[in-house]
Amino acid sequence: MNIVLIGMRGSGKSTIGPLLAQRLNRLFLEVDDLITQKTGKSIPEMIHASGWDKFRNYESQVVAEIAQTLTDAVIATGGGVVTQQQNIDQLKTNGILVLLDCSIETIIKRIGRNKDRPLLTDAPNFAEDLKSVAKDRKKLYEKYADIKIVTDVANPANIVNSIIEVLETRKII
């Protein structure tokens, strides 16, 4: 069964994913990296050139490929993967969805206003953009997550331990 990390940008998916994969001796994949490989463009370049809808189409293609071919990987998704029902359906066919949850304040501390991350809304600034997106996505994350881990204060090793503990308790690993 795949372990699929979901959550807002900056919630820790790219940090926790490789550590979790290493501890469990599993392959680690990052959906955004696979999209970049598939298109030959960075995410910001793709969004600037083609828009968010085209990006979401590529994301759904990559998610379907992963879900149909992998069974024992740790997968870090993009923050918006939950906005497309087909992505959730694909990921849940052979995966457990682990929500890495944290506050907007924590996200801002972690990633600040990274110019490589395009804004998702027409908000006037990064903080307002995050708040708007979080408001819309929080319900989706909660709805689809099989496990929720709060990442605000714990260090990465402790977060990995918490995930493994829950997976073992539920006899998933």
Classify the helix fraction into a percent range.
55-70%
Q: Major sheet, described briefly?
A: 5 strands, parallel
CATH hierarchy: architecture = 3-Layer(aba) Sandwich
Rounded mean pLDDT score: 92
Level-1 CATH class name:
Alpha Beta
Q: Beta fraction of the residues? A: 5-15%
Fold and architecture overview:
The structure is a single chain. By secondary structure, the protein is an alpha/beta fold. The chain is globular and about 45 Å long. The protein has a single domain (2-169), classed as Rossmann fold. Helix 2 packs across helix 4. The protein has helices at residues 13-24, 31-39, 43-50, 52-69, 85-93, 104-111, 126-144, 156-169; strands at residues 2-6, 27-30, 73-76, 95-101, 147-150. It contains eight helices and five strands, in the order E-H-E-H-H-H-E-H-E-H-H-E-H. The chain has a five-stranded parallel sheet with strand order 2-3-1-4-5, with helices on both faces.
Identify the notable features of this structure and list them briefly.
173 residues; alpha/beta; Rossmann fold; 8 helices; globular
